UniProtKB/TrEMBL annotation:
GO terms for molecular function: 6-carboxytetrahydropterin synthase activity; metal ion binding. Its EC number is 4.1.2.50. Pfam families: PTPS (PF01242). It is an enzyme of class 4 (lyase). This is 6-carboxy-5,6,7,8-tetrahydropterin synthase. Its cofactor is Zn(2+). Gene3D superfamilies: 6-pyruvoyl tetrahydropterin synthase/QueD. SUPFAM superfamilies: Tetrahydrobiopterin biosynthesis enzymes-like. It catalyses: 7,8-dihydroneopterin 3'-triphosphate + H2O = 6-carboxy-5,6,7,8-tetrahydropterin + triphosphate + acetaldehyde + 2 H(+). It comes from Aeoliella straminimaris. Pathway: Purine metabolism; 7-cyano-7-deazaguanine biosynthesis. Belongs to the PTPS family. QueD subfamily. It comes from the Bacteria.
Length: 160
């Protein structure tokens, strides 16, 4: 059985790899739709509040009103230096890859799974007309892909 829950958060980001408007720092009101796989045990499977008790705090503390930023983006070092110099704290959600909606889906899928839930699908709405639908199969495939890429980088660094 699938239980569907919706959440939202506001965050800024940029994609430093692009040569279009998305290279500029900008924000979104992200919509997150979780499709949880559950098994019925008696008259109910899982209380809706069980999802909210874990997913909502994750989004509120890690993502809401944060800057999603790739640690390889030159802007990241500038922001870290600023915080060290001024003592100001900024909510930075650090990515090890560009902050595309696909990479956001990959990261969120893993974090929600680590909360103890089995996700079937995750939808990330970046704008009113743009939605990334990300499945468990996508997550498994991306884990393999990124593990291979990370291993290739480690091998290159070891040779250098």
């Amino acid at each position: 059985m699938i239980i569907r829950k919706e959440y939202k958060f506001y965050a800024a980001h940029r994609n430093e790899e692009l040569a279009d408007k998305c290279r500029n720092l900008h924000g979104h009101r992200y919509g997150v739709v979780c499709h949880f796989e559950v098994e019925r045990k008696g008259s109910i499977s899982t209380l809706f509040g069980d999802f909210d008790a874990k997913v909502a705090p994750l989004l509120k503390t890690q993502y809401d009103h944060a800057l999603l930023i790739n640690i390889e983006d030159p802007l990241y070092r500038t922001l870290v230096d600023h915080c060290e110099r001024t003592g100001e704290t900024l909510r930075l959600k650090r990515f090890t890859r560009p902050t595309s909606v696909e990479n956001l889906a990959f990261i969120l899928f893993g974090e929600i799974t680590e909360l103890g839930f089995r996700l079937h699908q995750l939808e990330i709405r970046e704008t009113d007309s743009s939605v990334c639908v990300y499945t468990r199969e996508d997550w498994v495939s991306d884990n393999r892909h990124f593990a291979n890429k990370d291993n290739e980088l480690l091998q290159i660094e070891a040779v250098s």
